[in-house]
Structures are given as structure tokens and as C-alpha cells.
Amino acid sequence: MISEEKKLFDSRLNRHRDELKWLYMELYDSDEWYKCLEEGLWRFYKERNAALREMDLEREANPDWYRKNDMLGMMLYVDNFAGNLKGVKEKLPYLEKAGINYVHLMPLLESPKGRSDGGYAVADFRKVQPELGTMEDLAALTEKCHQKGISVCLDFVMNHTSEEHEWARKARQGDKKYQDCYFFFDGFTVPALYEKTVPQVFPTTAPGNFTWLPQCGKYVMTTFYPYQWDLNYRNPMVFQEMMFHFLFLANQGIDILRIDAVPYIWKELGTNCRNLPRVHSIVRMMRMITEIVCPGVLLLGEVVMEPEKVVPYFGTVEKPECHMLYNVTTMATIWHTVASHDVCLLKKQLDTLCALPGDYVFLNYLRCHDDIGWGLDYASLWKERMQAEIPHKKFLNDYFRGCFPGSVSSGELYNDDPVTQDARFCGTTASMCGIEKALAKKDEKMLASAIDLDIMLHAFMLMQSGIPMLYSGDEVAQLNDWSYREEPEKRDDSRYIHRGKFDWEAAKKAEDPDTVQGKVFTRLKVLEEIRRKEAVFEGSAAAWTIQTWEPAVLCMARADGRDKLIGIYNFSPEEKMAWIDEKGSYTDLVTGETGPASGVRMPGYGFRWLKQQL
């Protein structure tokens, strides 16, 4: 007699079997390997506990659960935030107080010390870093999070493994079976052909895309760092085992699996090895596998490109791929707008985003664990303002280091390349807004302006469609951590300037309105509560921009058929006038004041959320 659980599994499998097998056979042409895949899916489904299966059913019945305006995320490093996984569990009341219901735990799987790339060089996909706890601790944390209505996100690093992964060790010892899991070459003839078309990710800190291994006398492909070996997804063993690792993590209670560096996972000679068609075949299979085994789990794609090039990773209505993607370019453009006091590029990008289907879910953020790469729309910048790429990047980096006249920002360059004259930037939101420098100078006027900028930028982020993400510490205006320069393992990587330990003493002041922490925390809390309350913030609402006829002021609107919301944002420290003329009376959701939305006077770094009932 077939059990109810087998019937449910089979119904899900049958829904996808034809397409899944077709895509699989197109890549691997092996009935034997495909049979093993199906057997593995059933095994992981059986291992999924009752609570997770129940959650799967609830989310299947409510597939838009993650699209609501009550979602608020936070990214954090377990060790920096609370020491270990048990510590995070104890600190959940703080996350609840901050309104967080989506927590992204930065990489925590076993990786070699000093050669981990912040945890993105995974040596064992089924073990937690010992100092952070155990896999049982992770499962206990996710269970507690679910009880509190908090979803948990974890990185799934599928493009590469650490050189200390079991496969890599065996490959280094000469085992051909495991060398075939990577890209091994006897000489440099083929790697040289790849180098002609494949860009370098880190040209200064990790030049080239291959590493020589003297132990076995071969080259191996290493797109990112020499200790991160690219996996060969032409090999069915690689796809199979990585999918099983994926499902193992899902069964620990992970709700969102962030697919790291997803555009890189398929390699073809003669191409740039980015965004190739087979990438989409693999992501599509991942989506179907998820819907078969753990349909309550979401796929978050890390695709670092402009929105119009990112959207293929959503797939189609009939054949969806990722549930969510990062809004990377908007983050960089926001900071460009802060430095230039010119909203034209940001407005153009918003026009592109607003034209996309409403069911596309982006994660919106101001800062994250990584550097800021100035991947802007330079063609438009040249056309609109005659600004060339290299000098403009230099201006941005000078501005945010505080080297440009009038700048109050502080931070560090990352991967400064003297050949290309390119560099990225690192720093916390608060320090980039000028809070660090204002406190150092004990300048109250400068401090008030810096806090206003910080809040205005968060208000703008909160108005975007999708899920707003805070970087841990931003809610209490955490500053740059310059102590990283004193630690040998960190001093060559300036990203650690914004990866400092969470300041729990500062967090105690979060509700004291006389402190910087309190001023930021309480003002953000007001905005977050407004966003949860007002349905016009839901992703299904229509969104568009409005011309203000003032270069430093951006205006966008949202409407859901019942209400209309106009958001106005002044990216200048000086008072400006938003020359809009919207009919009727509006209520400011923050101040409660009522009046027309016509010729709106905007204080320096000020914003308005103006609502009108339709």
C-alpha cells in the first residue's frame, strides 16, 4: 500500500518529471544517473521532518507568502553578531525588537582558516565551522526562528569548493575520478585559450583564472581565488552531489538558499564563462527539485548585473527559476547619487525596474558584506552629463574616502588596480553618510545632517518593491572597524572594515533618543512599521517616477487601487524644492501633516512619504 507521503511526493514529481528528465538528459544523457537522482530526491523528502513538511504545505497554499510588505531582512555574521549559533538563538529577541523576520546567516560551513574568502571556500557542505557550533545547533536555531515567524537564509556556494574539500584532496593526489569534478589541464595550452575570453574577477589580488598545482603537475581553474577550485557541472556526479548537499541544508530548516555566483557555474571554451544557457538549465532543475522535495524553500540568485540583464534568472511564468534576486546596481547607483547630488541615473534605473512584472521580487539594500563595485550605466552618464567611466569612478572613490571637497564620508578602497585605474569601495552605511567623521569632530550640525542622510536612504530603500535588507549594525549606525588592519588574516582585505563585531554596548542605546543609536534605530522603526501597515508598499502595487525639475530630488509613486503614495527624496544637504503638481490632498505618513503635493519644499537630506486615498 502506497503511503500518503509517497503519494504527495509522487504527485509533485510527476508534475515536473517530463521537463526535469528532458533537461537532465540533455546535459548528461544517462538514465542510470537520472534514476539515482530520483532515488535521492525521495530519500531527502523522507528525511524532511514533520514540521518542515507542514510548512511546505502552508507555503504551497500561499505561494505569495514572501511577497508581502511585512518582510524585513538582516544579513549578519554569526561570530560577529553573537559568537556562535547558540548565541544567535539567545539574541533572537533583539532581532524581533528590530522588526526582523528574515535573517541571512553569512557563510558558516567548514572552511580553512586564512583561505576561506569569508566562508565562501567550503571544505565540507555538511559541517558547520567548529567555533560556530554544529549542524544540530543550526537546526535548533532554524526551529526557534520558525516559532518566532523568522525565515532563515544561508549561502549555497555551488560554483567552487575549497582546495581542502575531500574531492580536491583526492584530485591533488592524482585520482582521475575527482580531477574530473574540476577543470584540470596538463599544460597551459587550453587555459591560455580560456584566458583570452574570460575576464579576471580579482585582477590585483588573484590575477588569472588558473592555478598551477606542483603536487600533481597540473593546472586547475580558479575563477575567484587560487584556493577555490571551480566545479565541473558537465560531470553528472558534480550536479548530483551538489543537489544533495543543497537538499541536506534545506532539511536543516533553511528557508532561503542563496545561490552564490550563479552566473559562473557553466564553463565553455571561447566564451566569457558567464550567464551561459546551460546555467539556466541547471537553475531551472534546481527550482523543480526544490518544488518536489521542499516547496517551502526559496532560491535567491546572486547575479551582479543591471536589472534588465538580471531578470532572465527569474525564468518565465511557465518555467520559473529563482524566486528572488539582488538589486545590486540600484545599491551602487544610490551611492553615486549621494556623491553627485544628481538623481538622473537613479531615476532612469527606477523607470526600468518599475516597468518589470510586479511578481519579480528583488532584495533591496544599502550595504552588505561585500565591497561596492561601481558598475554604473556609464553610457547614460556620458550621454546625460558627459562623465567618463574611469574619472567618474575616481571621483566616487575620492568622495567616499573623504578626499573630495565637501565630503564627510570615510572608508577604504578595495582591489585598487593601477593598470585599469579601477577600484571598489568599502565602508558601513553610517560612516559613508558622515556619522563617523561628525562624531570625531564633535560637530552636532554635521551629525544631524549625516543621520538625516542615513534615514533618507533607508526610507528610499523601504519604498522599493521587494524585500528590504539591513546589514547588521546599520540599525544602530555602526561605524567602520579600522582594527582589521591589525589582524594579519584580515589586513589585506579592506572588506573587513565593515565586517566588524556587532557592538552590543551601542545596541543597548537603541531606544535612547538622545544617542546616535537611538536616533537611527527609533526613526527606522517608525518607517518599518508604516511599511508593514500600508498595503500600498506591497510588491503588487504599480510604481513609477515623477519628474521634480530639481537635479538633486527624486520622486516616485506607488498605487494599489485604494491608496496612492508619493515618496520624495532630497539627495542634497541643501534645501530644495520638488516642482511636482499632484492633485488633491495628501497626508505625510511620518509627521501626520496634511496638505497639497505641489511645489514641496524639501530640507537637506529630507524625505516625504505622502499618502492619498483614491
Ordered list of secondary-structure elements with their pairings:
Layout: H1 4-28, H2 31-47, H3 50-61, E1 73-76, H4 78-82, H5 85-90, H6 92-97, E2 102-105, E3 109-110, E4 124-128, H7 135-147, E5 151-157, E6 160-162, H8 166-172, H9 176-179, E7 184-185, H10 189-197, E8 210-213, E9 218-221, E10 228-230, H11 236-250, E11 256-260, H12 277-293, E12 298-301, H13 307-310, E13 324-326, H14 328-340, H15 344-354, E14 361-365, H16 378-385, H17 389-400, E15 412-417, E16 422-426, H18 429-433, H19 435-441, H20 444-463, E17 467-471, H21 504-507, H22 516-533, E18 542-546, E19 553-559, E20 563-570, E21 576-588, E22 594-602, E23 607-613
Parallel strand pairs: 1-2, 1-17, 2-5, 5-11, 11-12, 12-13, 13-14, 14-17
Antiparallel strand pairs: 3-4, 6-10, 7-9, 8-9, 15-16, 18-19, 19-20, 20-23, 21-22, 21-23
Helix pairs in contact: 1-2, 1-12, 2-11, 14-15, 19-20, 20-22
Describe the model.
It is a single chain. Helix 1 (4-28) packs antiparallel against helix 12, helix 2 (31-47) packs parallel to helix 11 (236-250) and helix 20 (444-463) packs parallel to helix 22 (516-533). The protein is an alpha/beta fold. The longest helix is centred in the N-terminal third of the chain and has 25 residues, at 4-28. The chain is globular, with a radius of gyration of 24 Å. The strands form six sheets. An eight-stranded parallel beta barrel has the order 1-2-5-11-12-13-14-17, surrounded by five helices. Strands 18-19-20-23-21-22 form a six-stranded antiparallel β-sheet, covered by helices on one side. Strands 7-9-8 form a three-stranded antiparallel β-sheet, covered by helices on one side. 39% of the residues lie in helices and 20% in strands. The protein starts with a helix and ends with a strand. The mean pLDDT is 96.
